[in-house]
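User: quick one, sequence for these tokens?
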């Protein structure tokens, strides 16, 4: 399978720039996810790869085959050989499952016996072998989506491009569909670009994730890197939930890095080596904040503060609190309930804090 390289791809619609000199590289066989808020340019990127949009400039290459290069090269979608699946399943209602999946093979003039064999093979792959004779209206949403996937795979694609393929499925089905698709993708090893605005989907399925914002790349990394080492406040906030506290860098004792927050007596110690000057923003995920029982704070704990519970929500596997930290709010989690208005002793371990420049 080829890798995929986009170099300085730019696209505007009616004078509005949607992609700004976008660079991206998807490795051979990986599942690479474009993640970002609605309108950030994910679908435009995917459509440009498929050949359904022509960028204004830049280059797109599948392995060493250039499929787009400014105005000079623009290979048609059929010749790019991408399997594409959209959010709306776009299976043809008047064709049976078999005929939907056979269609791309028919277009390529694959002979009837070979076609029937490949349709059976690919329907087995998506676990729909027993529904070959059914029509789309006789299938569930999840099954229709698998027909769309089978059709995308029927003529083995060089790249598989998936644009929010699960967003019409209910939550339980979506979870199963992710696991199932990921396993299938690994089994066949097809280089895949997956578009979603759902962070859980991106984190759970991908080899690597590219976080986009307004047509620009914010960060590319493994799900763990994106979550634990967000490059900036946008990524920290978009992927998972995060507390952001504004403060000011102050010289710490013994060369430690410290940040003072208005209304908080002692400054907070932040990871050594953080590049600290002037106004900074501290990001800390709720689940990294340690809640100590009264009288149970370890002697070596740093950044211990007392907060007051302002609101509580029960979320099944944990409780989520909004607590008051001076004039600010701090979101904290616990496994057991704590009453509204009570005080919590919490620790913000330095290693759980990321420091960013001013917003
Ligand atoms: N054919 C078009 N004509 C005009 N504007 C367009 C066209 N296609 C996309 N846009 C605009 O380009 C921007 C990026 O759209 P795009 O669909 O790529 O975003 P997205 O990140 O995929 O969003 P979503 O998750 O909502 O699908 C949006 O502002 C959109 O309105």
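Assistant:
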């Amino acid at each position: 399978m080829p890798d995929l390289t986009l170099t300085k791809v730019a696209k505007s619609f009616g004078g509005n720039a949607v992609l700004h000199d976008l660079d991206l590289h998807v490795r051979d066989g990986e599942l690479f996810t474009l993640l970002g808020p609605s309108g950030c340019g994910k679908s435009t990127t995917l459509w440009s790869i498929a050949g359904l949009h022509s960028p204004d400039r830049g280059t797109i290459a599948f392995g060493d085959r250039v499929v787009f290069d400014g105005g000079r090269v623009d290979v048609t979608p059929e010749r790019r050989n991408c399997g594409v699946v959209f959010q709306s399943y776009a299976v043809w209602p008047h064709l049976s499952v078999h005929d939907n999946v056979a269609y791309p093979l028919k277009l390529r003039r694959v002979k009837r016996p070979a076609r029937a064999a490949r349709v059976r093979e690919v329907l087995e792959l998506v676990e729909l072998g027993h529904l070959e004779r059914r029509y789309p209206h006789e299938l569930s949403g999840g099954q229709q989506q698998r027909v769309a996937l089978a059709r995308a795979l029927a003529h083995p694609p060089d790249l598989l491009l998936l644009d929010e393929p699960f967003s019409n499925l209910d939550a339980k089905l979506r979870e199963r569909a992710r696991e199932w698709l990921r396993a299938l993708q690994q089994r066949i090893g097809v280089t895949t670009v997956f578009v979603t605005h759902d962070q859980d989907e991106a984190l759970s399925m991908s080899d690597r994730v590219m976080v986009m914002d307004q047509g620009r790349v914010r960060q590319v990394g493994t799900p763990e890197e994106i979550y634990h080492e967000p490059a900036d406040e946008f990524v920290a906030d978009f992927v998972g939930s995060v507390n952001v506290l504004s403060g000011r860098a102050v010289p710490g004792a013994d060369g430690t890095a410290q940040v003072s927050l208005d209304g908080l007596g002692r400054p907070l110690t932040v990871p050594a080596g953080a590049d600290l000057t002037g106004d900074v923003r501290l990001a800390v995920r709720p689940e990294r904040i340690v809640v100590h029982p009264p009288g149970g704070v370890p002697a070596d704990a740093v950044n211990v503060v007392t907060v007051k519970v302002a609101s509580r929500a029960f979320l099944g596997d944990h409780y989520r609190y909004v607590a008051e930290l001076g004039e600010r709010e701090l979101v904290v989690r616990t496994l057991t309930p704590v009453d509204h208005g009570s005080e919590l002793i919490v620790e913000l371990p330095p290693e759980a804090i990321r420091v960013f420049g001013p917003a």
